[in-house]
TrEMBL record:
It is a single-pass membrane protein. The keyword Acetylation does not apply. This is ER membrane protein complex subunit 7 beta-sandwich domain-containing protein. Mg(2+) binds at residues 245, 264. It comes from the Eukaryota. PANTHER family: ER MEMBRANE PROTEIN COMPLEX SUBUNIT 7 (PTHR13605).
């Protein structure tokens, strides 16, 4: 059978066009769209939250945008499994898993990190609701006296003292109970002087009268540092010319005091000794170029003394900022053995006037 050449050529072109058309149809139908609605809290109405929101599939592999009415469409998504997330600066959303079959069938379910095999079906088109507002800053937890009183260590210390105080009171006020205890041949329990006992226990013995009153601040500090800490590091900081070196010089014994105070360069170490403790006081320079050295001594300090010159009102705000930076430092905010005192004036050291620099 002889087929004319023009007819054969037309048949060949038609077959090529049919094959190309099938490929185009297959390519066009292999990509699908993911659609749904974003629901924000009622308090956000009137705000332009839609323009600040994006729809991310697999952390940005496919991106869509939210319309003003809250709807969204992500086109050209191949078949497979995707994690759908809403990115917004003001609200947090729960991610949703979407599975797309080769025929374009959509299946949505909750995304559970703890139980990845658990299936909790969700309706399609998707409905994504804001979970909570985004919190960029968290309020710092405040210290409360109840936290200390209810700690296990404090309760373990208080319970024996309560028993020692309550049982003698019960036996003294109840004659019948006292008689029963005598019949049981139990010795009489006298109530001890708890205040005197604690003073002797923490102070290392009965209090001794001394004429030297200059060490009152460091003696009270030693009582709060706990037992067994014979070597104590104290960091003394503050702005330059605030009187740090003058205070430490006044706390020295008369034979070790210096007559002229000079500005501190870097740091200087001074030693003090009480009945039970030996203090290493690090006198840190307060000039601006030396303040970055302060934080090197925070980790090893059991106490920090911040000196402020109340007469230097022009730099009072600078001292306040340095104090806040000190309290926010990671080595200070996480310390559990740091001693906290209130403000102590020059009269506490029995100083009429502080003379000298730094």
């Amino acid at each position: 059978m002889n087929i004319p050449l023009p007819v054969l050529f037309c048949i060949l072109i038609a077959l090529i066009g049919l094959v190309i058309g099938e490929d185009v149809v297959t390519t066009a139908t292999s990509n699908f769209r993911v659609e749904g609605d974003v629901i924000f809290p009622a308090s956000s109405k009137g705000e332009r939250w839609a323009s600040n929101s994006r729809v991310l599939l697999n952390h940005g592999q496919h991106i869509g945008f939210v319309k003003e009415d809250g709807s969204f469409v992500v086109d050209n998504v191949p078949s497979g499994s995707y994690v759908v997330q809403i990115e917004n600066v003001d609200f947090l959303f729960e991610p949703i898993r979407v599975d797309i079959t080769g025929k374009g069938k959509m299946r949505a379910r909750k995304l559970s990190i703890l139980q990845p095999n658990a299936v909790s079906q969700l309706p399609y088109p998707l409905k994504l609701t804001a979970r909570e507002p985004t919190r960029y800053f968290r309020k710092r937890e405040e210290w409360r006296i109840t936290d200390m009183l209810l700690s296990p260590m404090v309760l373990m210390l208080l319970l024996p003292f309560l028993v020692m105080v309550i049982i003698p009171k019960l036996t003294a006020n109840d004659p019948q109970l006292q008689k029963e205890m005598e019949q049981m041949s139990l010795p009489k329990m006298d109530m001890p002087d708890v205040s005197e006992m604690m003073a002797n226990y923490f102070g290392g013995g009965p209090k001794k009268t001394t004429s030297n009153k200059k060490m009152g601040f460091f003696s009270s500090l030693s009582q709060l540092l706990g037992l067994g800490k014979r070597q104590v590091n104290v960091v003394v900081i503050g702005l330059d010319n605030s009187g740090k070196t003058t205070i430490l010089n006044h706390l020295k014994t008369p034979d070790t005091q210096v007559a002229q105070i000079v500005p501190t360069v870097g740091y200087a170490m001074t030693n003090f000794t009480t009945e039970n403790f030996s203090f290493n006081a690090f006198d840190m320079a307060g000039a601006g170029k030396y303040r970055n050295l302060w934080e090197s001594y925070y980790a090893s300090a059991q106490a920090i003394v911040f000196v402020v010159d109340s007469a230097d009102r022009l730099r009072m705000s600078v001292a306040r900022d340095e104090l806040w930076m000190l309290l926010d430092h990671k080595d200070i905010s996480s310390k559990s053995d740091l001693t906290l005192f209130g403000a102590i004036t020059g009269q506490s050291f029995r100083l009429v006037r502080l003379i000298g620099k730094d």
